[in-house]
Amino acid sequence: MSYSTKFRSLRRLVTASALLGALMGVLVSPQALAQAANTKPIRIGVPTSVQLQVGRDTLTAIKMAVDDINKKGGVLGRKFEFVAADETENPETGISAIKKLTADEKVDLLIGGYTSGVTLAQLPHISAAKTIYLGVGAASPSITAKVKQDYDNYKYIFRVGPINAAHQARSLVDYISNFVIGELGYKNIAIVGENAKWVQDLVPVLAKGAKDVGADVKLTELFDTQTSDFSPLLAKVKSSGAQYMIVVLSHASSDVFAKQWHDAQVPVPYGGIDVKSMDGDFYSRIGGKSISEVAANFAVRAPLTKKTVPFFDEFKKNSANYPVYTAFFAYDSVYIYADAVKRAGSFDTDKVIKELEKTKHEGVGGEITFDDMHDVQTGKGKMNLIFAQWQDKGERAVIYPKELRTGNFILPPWMKK
Amino acid sequence: MKAFRGLDSISVAGGLGALAFLGFLPTLFPGKYLIGVLTVAAIYGIWSVSWDFMSGLTGRENFGHSLFIGVGAYTAGFLNVQFGWGPWWSLPASMVVAAFFGLILGFPTLRLRGPYFALAMLSAAVIMQRLMLIFWEFTGGEEGIQDITPLIKDPLHYYWFVLALLGAITWFLAWMARSRWGLILRAIRGDEATCLAAGLPITTYKIASLIISAAFAGLGGALYAHYQLQVSPQLFAVVTSITIITMVYVGGMGTIFGPVGGALLLTLMTEGLRNFGEWRLMVYSLLLIFILFFLPNGIVAPTWNKIRNLFSQERP
Amino acid sequence: MEILIYGAVTSAIYALLAVGFTLIFGVARILNLAHGSFYALGAYGTYVLTSMVGLPLWSAALIAIAFVAVFGVVVEKVLIRPLRHSQLGVLMISLAVALVVEQTLFLVFGSEYRNVPSFVDTKINLGGVDVAGQRLLTLAVASVAIGALYMFIQFTRLGSAILAISQDPEAAKYMGIPSDKIFSLVMAISAALAALAGVMAGPFLSVQPSMHLLPIVKAFAIVVVGGLGSIPGSIAAAFLLGYAETCVAYLISSSWTEIVSVLATLLMLVFRPAGIFGKRAAF
Fold this sequence. Notes:
- Chain B is mostly helical.
- In chain B, 75% of the residues lie in helices and 0% in strands.
- Chain B contains 14 helices and no strands.
- Chain C contains eleven helices and two strands; from the N terminus they run ααααββααααααα.
- Chain B binds chain C through residues 61, 108-109, 112-116, 118-120, 123-124, 126-127, 130-131, 134, 242, 245-246, 249, 278-279, 281-282, 284-286, 288-289, 292-293, 296, and chain C through 31, 79, 82-83, 86-89, 91-93, 95-97, 99-100, 103-104, 106-107, 217, 220, 224, 255-256, 258-259, 262-263, 265-266, 269-270, 273, 282-283.
């Protein structure tokens, strides 16, 4: 056999291995190279549902805060930059997003979150990476419960928002007792929610609380999150004798729910927690059919604090719409972290955590402080659930709490006497 | 050597070489991120290989493989969290439970032909997923089970452990495929009536191969649970089954080792496409169409055959 | 009473979907997983034509349906026909098409729900039950469409050709029936029916990129229960499933409805793969 043919196969093997190695390298090295050059900026990792409004608004809000702080010189001489990773609504993708951000992008802190199930799945991996995590979207109490159960491993976790589901249930009970029963005089209520874990945790608390304040809960039903035809459900609500329908919706098709409720002219007004209804364009995108729905919001464009209205207006300039709730908390998170670092005088994780715990920050929706589970607190002057109603021409009026009221409650058009 | 019957030394060398390469990869490019991706790729490899053994050989495509995966994973979760058993028990337990499901599902469905079997298994997987959600008090609903303890704390060592299992399972199933067993399964794919006429107990073989396939899928599920440290109903999703079938397609159906390459390639591609953000799934789907049209025998197996032929030509 | 009416509306939509699905299967042996995409494109097409182009609703709907029919024919000719020798190949490619359509809709329109205006925006009270006008219109339109299809197949020459091919493709070829052209025609009809369902149901059901999933699952379930390839079977099964789901939603709870169709599929496959009216058990 000649020299050239003898080594032909060897050369081919070497070429093939080299190509394969190059493929691996292409996937991994750009990040490695980038890291070598980026030791100075503070990197924020944003795990969020990039494809949804909550994700987009989280990123817009962080950008606003980062630009503002950087303009003023950054923090302790370092400027911020941020990088997003899509966690979708799937725990597996969520975990790999955390790994990408912490192990590959080597971020200094994490701000983000939306689906409780994904966040819960990410917690052990965040803890293993010893990176501070400021949650802005997931409401499950189990997330912060871990901080108390296992402080050493989970002290990195903070929830800047939203108010956890248990608090939300209490706020909803207050709404029922003071407004639905107190002002509207409706004692018979129906409770309707999507069959998701956070709702399953919330509804028993809600039902019991409602009964304790004198409501007669005529019907409680959880429907499959993927339901697209609510007519049987709505008919059941109507025949149950309920005068008001309390809803608890997040991932379900609120748009369709509102449309079907409106088209069938169900003689039962509704309100409650409806995450999709927090979107600024909810009313207009369903042809105005959510009129008279009361939805809980964490902030609306009203002077809740000095920062509220300027934030809303500035946000609208940067994006085509008004912000959803993750945006308020994401915006506040950046400042809270920056302030904690300034007070600690260093970027050392443990020192920053100690300062974060002492946070007292005037945020977009209220004053932000943390309890011993690193969970945002509610109360007078702090973050609260605000109930706003969709009214004519897509205007939203705050109708509860009474101190913040900006308009009068209206009934659905077909129920006007 | 009987263990390597039917496998020439080039294939053996190739297989061991690939394993060694994969094992050394994290040392060349250190970082938890790559180890994580490779671990997931290896687990997908186990799932793909187990699928190929049954469906690739018999031609009965199982669209519900995710059921066995989910069942194995949830078994691991329950034993570890609810009953407090040590994580090592999950491995055999998940295999047993998954095999059991293979048995009870195999009996009624394996007599169905063509897409009916695929559809029946798919329905079964969807029902399991729904049941996990409906009985949320026991299963944790869509949040699933959290706080599973890891099997081996060090990610690199765990990766090597999974890789070793992948190698062992692939070798075992490839050996089975080359034995009389594989011959019969392939014959079933060809013409069942003839097999029956020849007096072969094809039902036994079909169900047995489903059980084996299920057992390894369940094992993969348990490995996954102890890596992700949580399980959720997403594991039962149709997407999981379809992803695995795509991996087998890319790798080369019926070859057993091809799907390992397919799993690796596709997992890396999915992560590599992360930067494409919203376009990721689109690229994935277009790629699928491309492969279906132009590379019906997959990429990995034909490529390997070409490489192998190169070597055998050179021998004097 | 409510169950009667709501069940009828649900069944009508399901029937439109199932009949198209079983038609293309009976004639061309194609299990088209992209069938749900036709449904989605019908709804989105109407949305685009009304809100972005500004056409009146009726013309927008008709154009959307026509467009989807053409799309269906193109997909069949270009993507499915070359792979017809492999059952799995057809399944996979139609699935891939469905995914590509979903992703395209997602990239173009975003993940939020879109609003398709109703044809009829009133509420009608039928026997003490409040029903949205749009739903009753859907019921009416679906009945007319299916009735028309049935008459077409039974009473026209083209219809007989379709029947011939579905019963015996070889013999039909010998008789000079151009099977390829008939496949295209049947695909067009199948896609048009699905698009019609999308157009009619879009106003009151959800319009978002992944809306193709549930219809295809339901269509599959119905067609299996009714018997693959049998139109009367599909219609009967559609009503069976529609009413079963409505009953479950009323009497038990809405969280169990989605499982009904899948369970029905599984049970039917296990106990009677031919379905209620099917002629073939397997193939």
